[in-house]
Amino acid sequence: MNLSSLTAISPIDGRYADKTQGLRLIFSEYGLIRYRVEVEVRWLQALAAHPGIPEVPALSASAQARLTEICDGLDVTEAAKVKALEKTTNHDVKAVEYYLKQQVAGHAELSAISEFIHFACTSEDINNLAYALMLRDARELVLMPALDKLIDTLTKISHKYGELPMLARTHGQPASPTTLGKEIAVFAHRLIIERNQLATVALFGKANGAVGNYNAHTIAYPEVDWPALSEALIEGMGLVQNPYTTQIENHDFVARYFHALMRANTILIDFSRDVWNYISVGYFKQRTVEGEVGSSTMPHKVNPIDFENAEGNLGIANAVLDHLTQKLPISRLQRDLTDSTVLRNLGVGVAHSIIAFQALEKGLSKLDADPAKLAADLDDNWEVLGEAIQTVMRRYGLPEPYEQLKKLTRGQRLNGAAIRAFVEALELPADAKARLLALTPGSYTGNAAEQARNLTP
Fold first, then answer.
1. Catalytic residue among 5, 295, 340, 443
2. Which CATH number describes the domain made up of 382-440?
3. Can 295 be counted among the known catalytic residues?
4. What pLDDT shows up at residue 299?
């Protein structure tokens, strides 16, 4: 059976293939081969640019052009040639080396130095840089744009509903009022923090040989400053050199990267659940989509499926990312291969995150607040003004303010008349009493509107 979106085992490449196609160039087997080829070519170029390695003279414009052509022309057909070589070598990185030697065979200058392809490298020198480039491009090209778009959407919703009063609920019970926009702003601000954390995670790499000591490098060219050459190569790719490693780069930065993404995802799980509840109680209405069905048997339903989809995918993403963060920094002694198969799943958690981000965008685009429902809920809960009244009573020294309001309000529903009657009986300064008498649940929102207005992405 041929692979298609209908026969794919993973929904990433099946049901959600259209949502994750931007990741294929990065995290696929083809993507890994493409990054490996880039690293091998850059290493050869670095050797040729160093005056202390005369056996690899400076490359001519023709040679440079051929290497660029090899990298730029590495399409799926070319990657298949690498996979064909792997069937013989049973080693994926060695297959890349042999592929490059075949590709330069027709160029006399490059053919003469072909044995310096993969010179003094262990496979991990190539792999760790390839995976770091994957994470670099995933962050720059996919994750940051998706997070920025979601933050922008939340910011606009926060501004739109910044002054719309809403009954808050703590422990699920009626609490001091807020505004709908301010509550959205809380999530946007939390997301901004984690977005910025993710953006600043340094991506490390190493090119220091079999156990991290430049053993082969220094025995062949003892006069070359190999750490400096390695650093120039790595920084030239937008990465940071890790000077202390075993055979592998320690993967600690991968854990930091994914921990930041996990925190962002956890915030969005929290957000998805809150919006789900707001829809459930009627604070938000969902615009219907022509032809869409909410239930196979109950035709009236408009389910919050986008937020449920997001919550589910964020959970899967974090489960995968959590395993990666726990496993990848651990390696027996100087090297074991338990990270090898795990690293091939770098794109899985990212993909489920992206699916969730898109589901949230879709769900948010269909929401409209229901001011009448919000107002009715506030009007049914005048007892929430108990906080305001007892606090003013404290200021002016009235006896047992908390206890009096507890007796009046705890576990009871009060209307405006009952609240005002209590206030009228208080011995308060006229201006303070007037403020309390004018207060309604809908106007008792503190600086919530200001917080919403002040939110910037």
1. 295
2. 1.10.40.30
3. yes
4. 47
